[in-house]
Amino acid sequence: MADATLFDRGMRTRRSVLGDNHVDNATARKTGFDEDFQTFITEGAWGSVWSRPGLTRRERSIITLALLAGLGHEEEFAMHVRATVNTGATEDDIKELLLHVAVYAGVPAANSAYKIAKNELAKRQEAAQ
């Protein structure tokens, strides 16, 4: 059973970080198979953790990117690189966090993440022109 307050707060935070288009697309693709999972991540990740006051959105974004890169979660890493436009994390932040990934999680993980970040940042620059 969903906690309406936690879910609503999570949905607001999720939309502010990932953007309405991303969340609308994810919601449209939701089925009975993954509905409980979507509720879980909206309440747990977005309503609880991302909505806490202890860190800024920029700081949470940097931490998230480093963890996703280090764990090799490439699709989620790309999504969160795109989300930096909403969180305030900069290209320099991404560059610096990936150096940390290289030291603490390994050069192969950082190498893959650099490739993804460069691609996502180039798409952003192309769209801005």
Summarize the structure.
With 129 residues, this protein is mainly α.
Provide an overview of this structure.
By secondary structure, the chain is mainly α. Helix content is about 80%, strand content about 0%. α4 packs antiparallel against α5 (about 75-85) and α6 (about 90-105) packs antiparallel against α7 (about 105-129). The radius of gyration is 15 Å and the shape is globular.
- Report the count of strand segments: 0
What gyration radius follows from the Cα positions, in whole Å? Answer: 15 Å
Average pLDDT, all residues: 96
Count of DSSP-assigned helices: 7
Under the CATH scheme, which architecture of the largest domain would be assigned? Answer: Up-down Bundle
